[in-house]
Amino acid sequence: MNSSASTPPITFTIYSALGLYSFALVLCVFVLYILGLCVNLVLVLIILAESRLHRPMYVLLVNLALSGVMGSSSVCPNIIRHFIANRKETSLQGCLTQVFFTNVYGGCIFCILALMAYDRYISICKPLLYHSIMTPAKVKRMLSVVYFLLSSSSAVQVYLTSRLRLCRHTVDKLLCDSLVIANLSCERTSVIAAYGLCCALCVIVIPCFLVILSYVHILTVMLKTSKESQRKALQTCTPHLLTFINFSAATFFGVINNRLSHEVPKAVNIFTCLLFFVIPPLLHPIIYGIKMREIRQSLKKRMKEKNLGL
Question: Is residue 4 part of a domain?
Answer without folding.
Answer: no
